Amino acid sequence: MARITASVYTSHVPAIGAALDLGKAGDPYWQPVFAGYDTSKQWMRDHRPDVVILVYNDHANAFSLELIPTFAIGCAAEFQPADEGWGPRPVPVVRGHPELAAHVAQSVIEDDFDLTIANRMDVDHGLTVPLSLMCGQPDAWPFAVIPLAVNVVQYPVPSGRRCLALGRAIRKAVASFDDDLKVQVWGTGGMSHQLQGPRAGLINREWDNRFLDRLISDPQGLAQVPHVEYVREAGSEGIELVMWLAARGAMSDHAPAVAHRFYHVPASNTAVGHLILENT
Q: Cα separation of 29 and 76, whole Å?
């Protein structure tokens, strides 16, 4: 049967994608950011999955403010990189896994999560930047990807409790899939940042690192953190971090092994956080 072997957590800063695409990864400003993912790229080569369920948020590309699903799963055979206003990123088309996606959708919906099923969906930097950080710039992504979009753009957004429970429902779904697949679940977005208003540029190192500590050792307690704390302590866009709880919930109930941890400030006007956890 299919099994979840690990989870990956990373920021999805759009400027990181631009730095890669424009050949600036070696510039003094960007080199410390990308150096933090050198270990991750080798880990990916050593622990390549068959499928990644990638939890991210769309940035008004696949879904406009006219239609905002709380949770949407991509069930297509492939997903094109989105044109975010300056042309699509020059990255490979994302290959889906319709069979597993359909199975996860059925199982999770039967567990009372109202997933929106997307049979056509372009994917933006929220999904492609994490792929680039973990895999570099290949001619094709080395595994299939099931996009799972979460609304953290327009309130009301799902709670940390709901995201953790969604991850557990995904774990159950994957375990009941007949094919022998190695699956990883990735949570993306964050860390602390605010893009507008008087607090634009806010970064809270202490809160970010405490979040990482609790994500590893106390996800159940972390899931109780209210939205107002994310906004107050991590900025208006810090709410993206609830998506990391979906990936954490997909892990086994045993304490995970920490394969890699990285934190860096700044990247553009945000803090970059990154974790790799392995099931034990």
A: 38
Clarify whether 59 is annotated catalytic.
Answer: no
Q: Where are the beta strands (DSSP E) in the chain?
A: 3-10, 51-56, 71-74, 78-79, 94-95, 116-118, 144-150, 182-188, 257-267, 270-278
Q: Specify whether the CB–CB gap between 78 and 93 falls below 8 A.
A: yes
What average pLDDT does range 31-56 have in this prediction? 98
* Marked catalytic residue, from 12, 103, 125, 274: 125
For the stretch 170-228, pLDDT in tens is 999 999 999 999 999 999 999 999 999 999 999 999 999 999 999 999 999 999 999 99
- The answer to whether the Cα torsion of 126, 11, 15, 131 is positive or negative is negative
What's the token pair of residue 182? 């190695």
Active site residue 125: yes
Hey, which residues does 4 pair with through a beta bridge?
A: 183
Backbone phi, psi, residue 129, to 5°: -65, -45
Pairing relationship of beta strands 3-10 and 182-188 according to DSSP bridges = parallel
Give the number of domains in the chain: 1
Tell me how far apart the alpha carbons of residues 209 and 275 are, in angstroms, rounded to a whole number: 11
**Mean pLDDT of the region 75-94:** 96
Q: Which domain holds residue 180?
A: 3-278
Given the residues 12, 97, 193, 274, the one annotated as active site: 193
Judge residue 98's burial from the number of C-beta atoms within 10 Å of its C-beta, 0-12 exposed, 13-18 middle, 19 or more buried.
Answer: middle
Residue 157 is part of a domain; what is its CATH number?
Answer: 3.40.830.10
